Amino acid sequence: MDEFFMKLAIEEAKKAEQLGEVPIGAVIVKNNEVIASAHNLRETTKNAVTHAELLAIEKACEAVGSWRLEETTLYATLEPCPMCSGAILLSRIDRVVYGAVDPKAGCAGTLMNLLDDSRFNHRCEVVSGVLAGECGMLLTTFFRDLRQKKKEQKQKMKE
């Protein structure tokens, strides 16, 4: 089941990519049913907190009519950052499944694991590496293409 729902998160990431956003997607599932999905909108909104996970959490809260998202699983194509990990904990999500690790900001096992820190009053089960290759390739291709575009723009300015 994890791969099925991760594929839906990947579809969300592709929507972000079409908008020129970093391709990250998130899906929240309860009782094997998607209750929310979202993708990165930080560049579109010019708002630092419009990460895929936070937008999905907001939609899920609306869907269930509560800030408590107990008995849910969040699927994200990239390991959650500190901000998203905090929101995951505070919304009481039980389980987080992510694809690619984030060596720069990952807080679900890479730099630290906020989601399983016994000092908090809530902890999440964390499953990493689900469709990691596909999730990682989306990001690698996006940033490679972005660097190439910037290089071409510099060349044009020199001419």
TrEMBL record:
EC code: 3.5.4.33
Enzyme's top EC category: hydrolase
Domain of life per record: Bacteria
Upper lineage: Bacteria, Bacillati, Bacillota, Bacilli, Bacillales
Reaction equations catalysed: adenosine(34) in tRNA + H2O + H(+) = inosine(34) in tRNA + NH4(+)
InterPro entries xrefs: APOBEC/CMP_deaminase_Zn-bd, CMP_dCMP_dom, Cytidine_deaminase-like, MafB19-deam, tRNA_aden_deaminase
Transmembrane segments: none
Gene that produces this protein: tadA
The species this protein was found in: Domibacillus mangrovi
GO terms, biological process: tRNA wobble adenosine to inosine editing
The protein's name: tRNA-specific adenosine deaminase
Oligomeric form and interacting partners: Homodimer.
Family classification: Belongs to the cytidine and deoxycytidylate deaminase family. ADAT2 subfamily.
Every CMP/dCMP-type deaminase domain range: 1-118
Binding site for Zn(2+): H51, C81, C84
Active site: E53 (proton donor)
Function field: Catalyzes the deamination of adenosine to inosine at the wobble position 34 of tRNA(Arg2).
